[in-house]
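Thread: "does anyone have the structure for this chain?"

Original post by V.I.:
We have the sequence but no experimental structure in hand. Need at least a predicted one for the grant figures.
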Amino acid sequence: MRALAIPIALAALLIGGCGSSKEPTTPQDAILRLDSQAASSALELERSEEAIEQYRRAFERAIARDDAGDIGDYGYDLAVAQLGANQPRPALASVRRTQTELARRGSPSFPALDLAEATADYRIGEKEASDRMARKAEAGNDAAASARAAFLRGLIADDLDDAAGLDRAIARLSSPTSVDQQADAAELAARREIRQGAFSDARTEAERAADLRRDILDYRDMARALSVAAYAEQRAGDPEAASALYIRAGQSAAALGDAASARAWLGRAMELAKDPALRDTARLALGSLKTAQRPADH
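Reply from O.Q.:
Generated one for you, tokens below.
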């Protein structure tokens, strides 16, 4: 399968830029190539719905030409674009249809596609299913997918108060080979520091993760890292610092159309803030969600 055409920000954001490497065949399908190029260009310009429609066309064209490699590629691209647009349920449906079409042609799924399924499951709250698929991706032969799967399993472990699972994920990422893996390792370290009561160190690690993600245009995970820094300050007993960080996380999430996260973080900011100016900022940001560009799920 070919290298992914999706922009690096989305690849890192979701599953670390994992994919496959089939060289294009000759002659190429011009319509398929044009649909893919149009989708990639739309993503670069943050025209999510247009990108999704173009990848859907490419996927259907791949089915029409009965090419398992292209089916896997464009089904995966479609799911990634849907995840980037905060559409986890449609993304999950795209992954499962892709897996079905591959199986019909005697081709197995691949680690990046399994990780897309795990990511979608995690986004809709199906953590057991997410961990099961992430474990499968982690054990696969795609190094980038494996590392990102380990990070996802670390998030799940932290959510479930599984300190041992969090430690295993941190150990797995102890030698990061890319900027996104460095950010993943820093965020998991911050979460462990919070559990150990080292709140200042936790904020430092969480803000380092946020800075790294900003540099690679991974704004979704950047916002989440800021929320981890905010929680560290909250636990440290500094509600004003926590409120300011929650506002920053919430504003970013709101701008990305992640209304659920934005409401949660801005709500915490309002609860914690004693400064009227901070409360007003959080209130205004919450109000802006009424005109959000897209819903968090479909």
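V.I.: this helps a lot. The chain has a mean pLDDT of 88.
O.Q.: and The longest helix spans residues 219-236.
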